[in-house]
C-alpha cells in the first residue's frame, strides 16, 4: 500500500478515538453517607436554609393545594350525567314519571 493511504488510515483511526468537546474523565463524587452531602450542624445550632427553599416549599405544596381544590369543584361533564338529565327532561315533557313506583294493585 502506498504511504498516503496508510497515513490517511492512521489519521482516520486517530479521529475516531478523539472525543470532541470532552473535558477529561467523568468526575466521581465519593459517597459520604450524609443526606444530600450536607454536614450536620454542630450541637445547639440549627440548619441554615438556602434562600430558594421556602419558595420551593410554598410553590410545590401551594400548587398541590390549588390543584386539589380545583379537582374537587370540577364540573361533572360525564356522558352518563348528561344522558340521565336529558332522559329525565324528555320523560317529563311526555308526562311520564322517571322514578319507578310499584303499583298498589295486588296480583
UniProtKB/TrEMBL annotation:
<keyword id="KW-0679">Respiratory chain</keyword>
<comment type="function">
    <text>Accessory subunit of the mitochondrial membrane respiratory chain NADH dehydrogenase (Complex I), that is believed not to be involved in catalysis. Complex I functions in the transfer of electrons from NADH to the respiratory chain. The immediate electron acceptor for the enzyme is believed to be ubiquinone.</text>
</comment>
<keyword id="KW-0496">Mitochondrion</keyword>
<keyword id="KW-0813">Transport</keyword>
<feature type="transmembrane region" description="Helical">
    <location>
        <begin position="55"/>
        <end position="73"/>
    </location>
</feature>
<keyword id="KW-0812">Transmembrane</keyword>
<dbReference type="InterPro" id="IPR019329">
    <property type="entry name" value="NADH_UbQ_OxRdtase_ESSS_su"/>
</dbReference>
<keyword id="KW-0999">Mitochondrion inner membrane</keyword>
<comment type="subunit">
    <text>Complex I is composed of 45 different subunits. Interacts with BCAP31.</text>
</comment>
<dbReference type="Pfam" id="PF10183">
    <property type="entry name" value="ESSS"/>
</dbReference>
<keyword id="KW-0472">Membrane</keyword>
<keyword id="KW-0249">Electron transport</keyword>
<dbReference type="GO" id="GO:0005743">
    <property type="term" value="C:mitochondrial inner membrane"/>
</dbReference>
<keyword id="KW-0809">Transit peptide</keyword>
<keyword id="KW-1133">Transmembrane helix</keyword>
<comment type="similarity">
    <text>Belongs to the complex I NDUFB11 subunit family.</text>
</comment>
<protein>
    <recommendedName>
        <fullName>NADH dehydrogenase [ubiquinone] 1 beta subcomplex subunit 11, mitochondrial</fullName>
    </recommendedName>
</protein>
<feature type="region of interest" description="Disordered">
    <location>
        <begin position="18"/>
        <end position="45"/>
    </location>
</feature>
Amino acid at each position: 500500500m502506498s504511504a498516503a493511504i496508510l497515513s490517511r488510515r492512521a489519521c482516520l483511526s486517530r479521529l475516531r478515538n478523539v472525543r470532541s468537546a470532552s473535558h477529561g474523565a467523568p468526575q466521581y463524587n465519593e459517597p459520604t453517607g450524609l443526606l444530600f452531602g450536607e454536614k450536620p450542624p454542630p450541637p445547639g445550632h440549627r440548619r441554615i436554609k438556602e434562600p430558594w427553599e421556602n419558595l420551593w416549599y410554598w410553590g410545590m405544596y401551594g400548587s398541590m393545594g390549588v390543584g386539589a381544590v380545583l379537582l374537587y369543584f370540577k364540573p361533572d361533564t360525564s356522558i352518563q350525567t348528561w344522558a340521565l338529565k336529558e332522559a329525565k327532561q324528555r320523560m317529563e315533557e311526555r308526562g311520564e314519571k322517571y322514578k319507578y313506583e310499584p303499583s298498589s294493585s295486588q296480583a
